[in-house]
């Protein structure tokens, strides 16, 4: 695609902001993290207000941090149970600046499109519902009632309910999520795409096929009982900083840590715990990874197959566990013994003796935890790769006992809970049956659209109304320009949001922004103090109660927005008392209790300090699969081939962002300062192309004869394997091909974009 037909507002402007590089850090956190936290919180939220909110973060009965889904300790918690990036998330949300309708009167959507993603966040909190009328370039205020009537008229005017799609981002609490999917299903469709489709969907698919549940199996206290912790494709120092405390405790209890990552991430190398005075002052630190394998991008499947081959050829499996608890082992044994070492070494980029040394270490342990995130899930072969990891743990009997198990580290703070609540385009039959029983209507049974299908359907006019409960669909999805065209094809696009983002600027014929309460704010819906509940990465359900005054008196809670939307749209077609439910979230929880297993005495148990764990059979060594056993799987090694000159590019997060929300321009640990338009390349790959650090290049991606282009990136020399490149998400989402998705999970392959660099003349 040329750049002539692009929609400029869809992408962050190309201007450089002033790159400076320093040596990458070899230790995470410590004093710089504390200083950075306070700078953000005091700067944006004010000193007293900001400090008070931070003290409630992740406390029992306080606010569930709106940043990542890492769990809180079950027992006593420290006074400051938050991290630098949680502090930034809170600062961003509790911003004292306001984005009022006046501002939109003087700023068109075209002018706003020229601001950067960072600048959008600095405009402050949205205060009133806004509408962009057909043909207008300016948002203007609209009353809540008129907004709901407008949406209802569009939805009810569709030829079929399947012409609407209802997206969810993973910050939405359980109560709003449950009500939302209920509304969407009573409206008549399962078109419920969500951010999970782009995130841990591959983990869900891989795990449900093998251990019978699409979630992880470890608890936080398993870390201290583990002998060995494998961390693949995850950057916890930035994205789950509180995980470093768990890793530190594990190290002190004698565990060894193995990091598998193309980059030497600071948070995998060493940690200075800000809670410990000596470490805070920089006098000491805890070394983390004992072994660091700088795998090539996409090379984990090969590496894992090499490990399995060595272990099985050395008879190093737990025969009692394998014979009693699993099936499929003989097939796996046959498959791996036939594997050749050359492709394993070639694709992983790791020498055979290193693979064998790690295999020996794994073979000497039976309490192993495997952690992973987007470095494994966003590949074409993500599902088989995660299944090789399951094979590895099953081989060692490392699932279903203390100190061992699978730990897919979730992203958004309630992404796991939203799925439990039924935000899913193909929910299980039992779930729909339970909805039918509880609410007395027949929910649709056909599979709905996931995220990529939604974009395709908007592109060919099969979806005409797009509604988003949170998130930033335009910037988070692959192929930004295609998504932009899809959104523009819609008759109506609606975003429930707390701040302005790019998805509000590239719209359907009519567009609405519905501003809602943030998690840190008091929720007095129905005149009563309400709280919401969330599920963390380890299946703990806990309550979250905001304490700050809302950013504006006009804000509604997400729950109330959904209830009023349902009332306006369904009218007398629905017997569900939506507004009564929204006036007392306990009533929503009573329904959830009767629909979703594991929520017995929900209202009572969630009020207990720390909440409660959902049942998790594999954690107890039971596997709810078709055969009642955990399943070994075999998959052929996927061949990764680059043509001469091509690079495999991963799109990753800096230390100063939450997904598409840009808090600042620093990637402190990687030593990349004040610039996001960078491409990290190996020294030899730079030299081979007659380039040098600081050169400006365009990036061109290649997929089945299609090319996509992102202009103007600065070359940074970095310690990354040959043939690999790294750039920041979302600036390079424009390069991610829409149709390049993971087999079995439809997750965009954001960590393996085949591209070339072109020097500007
Ligand atoms: N502060 C902050 N916290 C966040 C987020 C945020 O943006 N900011 N996002 C949240 C969300 S939604 C999510 S899903 C998580 C994301 O958490 P992560 O998955 O840690 O995030 P990414 O930046 O995508 O990092 C992927 C890591 O995988 C490595 N990697 C990439 N490709 C490969 C590969 O092929 N093999 C291996 N072994 N490694 C690879 C990269 O070098 C990088 O270290 O974090 C959550 N928490
Ligand atoms: N290239 C590339 N693309 C990726 C990824 C990648 O690694 N590389 N990662 C993928 C992953 S893992 C994920 S999870 C998705 C994320 O996709 P999304 O969840 O869609 O994106 P976010 O950037 O998290 O959404 C941020 C927006 O949410 C809104 N928001 C914040 N708080 C609230 C709230 O309390 N309520 C409401 N209603 N809105 C709120 C704000 O307005 C903000 O602009 O992106 C995916 N896209
Ligand atoms: Mo995510």
Care to describe what's here?
The protein has 761 residues and is α/β, with parallel strands linked by helices. It has four domains: 3-26 and 642-759, Barwin-like endoglucanases (Beta Barrel); 28-92, no CATH class; 119-199 and 414-614, Rossmann fold; 203-409, Dimethylsulfoxide Reductase, domain 2 (3-Layer(aba) Sandwich), CATH 3.40.228. The chain is 34% helix and 16% strand. The chain is built from 30 helices and 31 strands. The strands form nine sheets. The protein has a six-stranded mixed sheet. Bound molecules: ligand MGD (2 copies) and molybdenum atom (MO). Residues 67-68, 85, 199, 232-235, 238-240, 260-263, 265, 295, 297-298, 300, 373-375, 411-412, 650, 652-653, 657-659, 751 line the site of one ligand MGD.
What are the salient characteristics of this protein?
761 residues; alpha/beta; Barwin-like endoglucanases; Rossmann fold; 4 domains; six-stranded mixed β-sheet; six-stranded mixed beta barrel; 31 strands; binds ligand MGD; binds molybdenum atom
Largest sheet: 6 strands, mixed
User: How widely separated are the two ends?
Assistant: 20 Å
Question: Architecture of the largest domain in CATH?
Answer: 3-Layer(aba) Sandwich
- Total domain modules: 4
> What is the typical, i.e. mean, pLDDT?
95
Q: Compute the CA-based radius of gyration.
A: 25 Å
Percent of residues in helices: 25-40%
CATH topology of the largest domain: Rossmann fold
Residue share in β-strands? 15-25%
Shape: globular
Total number of beta strands: 31
Task: Compute the number of helices.
Answer: 30
Extract low-pLDDT stretches. Answer: none
Overall CATH class of the largest domain: Alpha Beta
**Bound chemical compounds:** ligand MGD, molybdenum atom
Main sheet strand line-up: 6-5-18-17-16-7
Structural class: alpha/beta
């Amino acid at each position: 695609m040329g750049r002539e037909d692009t929609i400029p507002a869809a992408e962050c402007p190309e201007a450089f902001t002033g790159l400076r590089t320093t040596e990458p850090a070899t230790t995470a956190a410590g004093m710089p993290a504390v200083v950075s936290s306070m700078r953000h919180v005091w700067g944006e939220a004010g000193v007293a207000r900001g400090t008070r909110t931070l003290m409630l973060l992740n406390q029992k009965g306080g606010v569930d941090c709106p940043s990542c889904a890492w769990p809180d300790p079950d027992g006593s918690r420290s006074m400051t149970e938050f991290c630098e990036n949680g502090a930034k998330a809170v600062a961003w949300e509790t911003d004292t600046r306001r984005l009022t309708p006046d501002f939109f009167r003087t700023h068109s959507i075209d002018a706003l499109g020229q601001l950067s993603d960072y600048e959008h966040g600095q405009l402050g909190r949205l205060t009133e519902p806004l509408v962009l009328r057909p043909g207008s370039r300016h948002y203007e205020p609209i009353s809540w009632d008129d907004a709901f009537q407008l949406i209802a008229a569009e939805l009810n005017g569709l030829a079929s309910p399947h012409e609407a799609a209802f997206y969810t981002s993973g910050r939405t609490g359980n109560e709003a999520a449950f009500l939302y999917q209920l509304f969407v299903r009573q409206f008549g469709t399962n078109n419920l795409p969500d951010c999970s489709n782009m995130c841990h969907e591959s983990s869900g698919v891989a795990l449900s096929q093998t251990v019978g549940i699409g979630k992880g199996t470890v608890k936080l206290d398993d870390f201290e009982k583990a002998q060995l912790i494998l961390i693949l494709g995850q950057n916890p120092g930035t994205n789950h900083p509180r995980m470093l405390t768990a890793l530190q405790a594990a190290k002190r209890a004698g565990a060894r840590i193995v990091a598998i990552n193309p980059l030497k991430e600071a948070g995998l190398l060493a940690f200075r715990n800000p809670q410990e005075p000596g470490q805070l002052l920089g006098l000491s630190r805890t070394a983390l990874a004992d072994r660091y394998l700088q795998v090539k991008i996409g090379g984990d499947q090969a590496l894992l197959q090499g490990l399995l081959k060595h272990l099985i050829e050395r008879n190093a499996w737990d025969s009692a566990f394998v014979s009693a608890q699993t099936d499929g082992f003989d097939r796996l044994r046959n498959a791996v013994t036939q594997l050749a070492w050359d492709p394993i070494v070639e694709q992983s980029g790791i020498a055979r003796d290193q693979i064998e040394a790690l295999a020996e270490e794994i073979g000497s342990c039976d309490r192993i935890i495997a952690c992973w995130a987007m470095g494994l899930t966003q590949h074409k072969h993500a599902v088989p790769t995660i299944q090789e990891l399951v094979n590895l743990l099953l081989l060692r009997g490392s699932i279903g006992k203390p100190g061992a198990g699978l730990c897919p580290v979730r992203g958004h703070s309630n992404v796991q809970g939203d799925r439990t609540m039924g935000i899913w385009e193909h929910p299980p039959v039992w779930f729909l049956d339970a909805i039918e029983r509880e609410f007395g209507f027949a929910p649709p049974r056909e599979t709905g659209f996931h995220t990529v299908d939604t974009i395709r359907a908007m592109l060919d006019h099969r979806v005409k109304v797009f509604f988003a409960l949170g998130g930033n669909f335009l910037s988070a999805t692959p192929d930004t320009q295609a998504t932009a065209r899809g959104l523009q094809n819609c008759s109506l696009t609606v975003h429930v949001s707390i701040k302005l983002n790019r998805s509000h600027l590239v719209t359907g014929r009519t567009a609405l922004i519905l501003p809602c309460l943030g998690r840190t704010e008091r929720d007095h819906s129905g005149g009563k103090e309400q709280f919401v509940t969330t599920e963390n990465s380890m299946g703990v359900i806990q309550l979250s109660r905001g304490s700050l005054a809302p950013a504006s008196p006009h804000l509604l809670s997400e729950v109330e927005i959904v209830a009023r939307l349902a009332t306006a749209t369904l009218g007398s077609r629905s017997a569900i008392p939506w507004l009564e439910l929204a006036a007392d979230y306990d009533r929503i929880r009573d329904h959830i209790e009767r629909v979703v297993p594991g929520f017995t005495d929900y209202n009572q148990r969630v009020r207990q300090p720390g909440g409660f764990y959902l049942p998790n059979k594999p954690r107890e060594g039971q596997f709810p699969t078709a055969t009642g056993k955990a399943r070994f799987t075999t998959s052929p090694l996927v061949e990764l081939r680059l043509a001469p000159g091509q690079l495999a590019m991963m799109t990753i997060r800096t230390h100063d962002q939450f997904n598409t929300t840009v808090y600042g321009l620093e990637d402190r640990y990687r030593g990349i300062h004040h610039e996001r338009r960078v491409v990290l390349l190996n020294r030899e790959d730079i030299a081979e192309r007659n380039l040098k650090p600081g050169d400006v290049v365009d990036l061109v991606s290649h997929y089945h004869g299609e090319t996509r282009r992102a202009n103007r990136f600065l070359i940074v020399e970095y310690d990354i394997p040959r043939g690999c490149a790294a750039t920041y998400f979302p600036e390079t989402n424009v390069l991610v091909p829409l149709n390049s998705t993971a087999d079995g999970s439809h997750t965009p392959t954001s960590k393996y974009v085949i591209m070339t660099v072109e020097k500007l003349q």
